[in-house]
Specification:
Length: 345
């Protein structure tokens, strides 16, 4: 079980990760002239050198050999890398085509997808409030499907891919830096192959749009590394319920950016769908806080009872000794035997 210090550290990492992710659309907007596939490939390629530099600075190489000896964990790392690659690609594409609000919706419904994973994969039982939240969320998706004229596949895919990534990260049990490095190693070769293909066909933009553009693509490794490392560090220190609460920060910031910075449209039907999702999240938050408070009260009660029992066990021997002493003091002293009578003869 994580200590309070670990939980505080995890909260700081979580706030930093989701805050940075929330403002990331501003960065990808600077690269809108480049095809999203190329941006994604550069993001993957430059992530590995960034990871190597950080590992060298921190001298954190000892985790590699044990990981290589565990094929199941390696497979989970590959799954995590695939899930986050899908998430990255769709998110970059959504910024380039002006669908940041729809992306924010995907991250808003992510907690509902995590709950569905718990039921379907982990056989968890939902509390009534959680069932209500899932029902409201499903209604929101239906309303938005009518509003868009189609199922909001972008939002749903973003939610599914990131929920999968979080679930797998919980199973891999690698810290933020180590997990990011392992995933970057998996992504590097296919991404580099794609960039080589673009260069040989003359379709790449790394060397054709100036130094500033090239630097923005190269820095994408650092931009990717920092929040992802923070997230990984938070995921191994905090329960999934806390991670679920923290992740509201990123889509809230994205929503503000889409509405105010990128001037995306919000017709009444879309407002209705978003409001329903927010109601579902409020129900989830209320239920999580209530459940946590009850659990803490039960722990305090159990601890108090255990302390009382321990105190009673400590005082019982002393009380028994005192009672024995009182009993011995109250008992009459044994009389001395009478001297033998003298003979009169």
């Amino acid at each position: 079980m994580a200590t309070r210090s670990d939980q505080r550290t995890g909260l700081l990492y979580g706030f930093a990760a989701y805050g940075l992710w929330g403002i990331l659309p501003l960065y990808w907007h600077l690269l809108e002239s480049t095809h999203p596939g190329e941006v994604l490939a550069h993001r993957m390629v430059w992530s590995l050198p960034t990871a190597v530099v950080l590992l060298t600075a921190l001298r954190r190489w000892s985790w590699i050999r044990p990981l290589l000896r565990q094929p199941k964990r390696l497979a989970l790392v590959a799954v995590a890398a695939a899930a986050i690659s899908v998430n990255w690609g769709l998110f970059i594409w959504s910024v380039s085509v002006g669908r940041v609000l729809e992306s924010s919706l995907g991250y808003f419904i992510n907690p509902l997808v995590s709950i569905a994973f718990g039921v379907l994969l982990l056989r968890e039982r939902l509390r009534p409030a959680q069932w209500a939240a899932v029902g409201i969320g499903a209604t929101a998706v239906a309303v938005l499907s009518i509003a868009y004229g189609q199922v909001p596949w972008l939002s749903i895919t973003l939610a599914l891919s990131f929920a999968t990534y979080g679930l797998v990260k919980k199973r891999v049990l690698l810290d933020g830096m180590d997990g990011f490095s392992a995933e970057s190693a998996v992504q590097f070769v296919p991404a580099l192959g794609f960039l080589v293909y673009l260069w040989t066909t003359g379709e790449g933009s790394f060397t054709t749009e100036g130094t500033g553009h090239a630097l923005l693509l190269a820095v994408s490794g650092i931009v990717t590394a920092i929040p992802l490392i923070f997230f990984g560090s938070a995921a191994v220190r905090l329960p999934l319920s806390t991670i679920g609460l923290l992740q509201y920060l990123a889509p809230a910031l994205m929503f503000v950016l889409g509405l105010l910075a990128f001037k995306e449209e919000m017709p009444p039907e879309r407002w209705t769908g978003f409001l329903l999702v927010w109601v579902a999240l409020c129900v989830l938050t209320w239920d999580a806080l209530r459940t946590r408070r009850r659990a803490r009260e039960q722990l305090r009660t159990a601890a108090a009872r255990a302390e009382e029992a321990a105190g009673a066990a400590r005082t019982r021997p002393a009380e028994e000794q005192a009672a024995a002493a009182r009993t011995s003091e109250a008992a009459p002293a044994p009389s001395s035997p009478a001297p033998p009578a003298r003979s009169t003869d």
